[in-house]
Amino acid sequence: MTLFLAMAIGSEAQNFSGTYLYEKRDTCDLFLDVYEPSPGSEAGRPTVMFVFGGGFVGGQRNEPFYHPWFKLLNDNGFRVVAIDYRLGLKGVDMRFDLFHLIDASKKTQKAVNMGVEDVFSAVNYLCRNKDKLGIDPFRIVLAGNSAGAMISLSSEWEECNRTPRAQTLPEDFRFAGVISFAGAIMSDTGKPRYLREPCPQLLIHGTDDAAVTYKKTSFAKRGMWGSSHVAEILEKQGFSYQIFRYVGHTHDMAANLVETWPEQIRFLEENVIAGIKRTIDATLDDPAMTVREEITLSDIYK
Fold first, then answer.
1. Which of 27, 52, 113, 167 could be 59's S-S partner, Cβ–Cβ 3.0 to 4.6 Å?
2. What is the pLDDT of residues 196-247, one digit of tens each?
3. Residue numbers of the domain that contains 221
4. How far is 50 from 121, CA to CA, in rounded Å?
5. What is the pLDDT of residue 297?
6. Residue 60 lies in a domain
């Protein structure tokens, strides 16, 4: 596909190497940016595919806020691929009073489904262009924050269950890991369950999150299962996982990518690269952790 050099934006990040058109949708073209490992860093490490946050109404793959985190990954030998996805709630009327909760859930589910489709399209692009980009498609760690974390967790769940969307992937494809900053799984078929063992998952969440629930919100079979319940599901099914529960933090943990780097690099090196099935369930009341302004649903969907 066509290479589009977004120099005005991408050159702000030291390791940016190019922007690629990975999918043409009816409503928009979808691009991905590639950031190469830093010279002298450890070679042969997995690629991290990043899905940005923004409530399905905003956000950008090349937002400068993310560049320091990209550089941390690059300096430690990880290539970063930051992707676009369709913003399924942009311009959509969202209400969260008692009479509109089911409608809001349906709309959010549709937005997540669109994001999952786009993640799988990006994966397929990387598989087709693995030699040109120097990417091992069987060593992709999916990472996202907020809405991007919801898409990431849902993508892994769908891949494990080989849903119709996941059947667009190569039959032998598996994610190497998932990192979720304040994410959740959206489901309209009841409590999520993994039909086969999922990849290693790192869950980072604030216990007082009022935007993406830390626990769960459900109505009959429809709902949102946050990090705490995802960990509970993995525990009951006998799968390893890591969850860091930040006491008193809200949705600000979706933005603390650099601040939680020590947890991430150990997860990447031990669980993902070394294949150690290391389970951690940690509750942290850490006064040193950055506290940011609280974000609620009413702030996002004004």
1. 52
2. 999 999 999 999 999 999 999 988 889 999 999 999 999 999 999 999 999 9
3. 38-300
4. 14
5. 84
6. yes
In a domain, 30, yes or no: no
* Residue in the structure block whose two tokens are 């304040």: 182
Length of the chain: 302
What whole-number distance in Å separates Cα of residue 135 and Cα of residue 138?
9
Which distant-in-sequence residues (6+ apart) come within 8 Å of 181 by Cβ? 53, 143, 144, 145, 146, 149, 204, 205, 253, 254, 255, 256, 257, 260
Q: What's residue 5's pLDDT?
A: 31
Q: State the pLDDT at residue 154.
A: 98
Is residue 86 within 8 A of residue 54, CB to CB? The reply is no
Q: What is the pLDDT of residue 298?
A: 80
8 Å CB contact between 280 and 242: yes
How far from 187 is each of 103, 136, 151, CA to CA, in Å?
A: 14, 30, 12
Minimal CA–CA distance to 60: which of 150, 125, 127, 147?
147
Asked, for residue 180, whether it belongs to a domain, the answer is yes
Cα–Cα distance for residue pair 188/253, rounded to 1 Å: 26
Number of domains in the chain: 1
What are phi and psi for residue 202, nearest 5 degrees? Answer: -115, 120
What is the spatial distance between Cα 223 and Cα 228, in angstroms, rounded to a whole number? Answer: 14
3-state secondary structure 1-33: CCEECCHHHHCCCCCEEEEEEEEECCCCEEEEE
- CA-wise closest residue to 248 among 285, 211, 212, 290: 285
Tokens 């299962």: give the residue: 225
Structural contact between residues 155 and 140, judged by C-beta atoms closer than 8 angstroms: no
pLDDT (tens digit per residue) in 92-121: 887 877 667 788 889 999 999 999 999 999
Low-confidence ranges of the chain (pLDDT < 50): 1-12
Q: What is the pLDDT of residue 101?
A: 74
Q: What is the CATH number of the domain that holds 61?
A: 3.40.50.1820
> How distant is the alpha carbon of residue 221 from its chain centre?
23
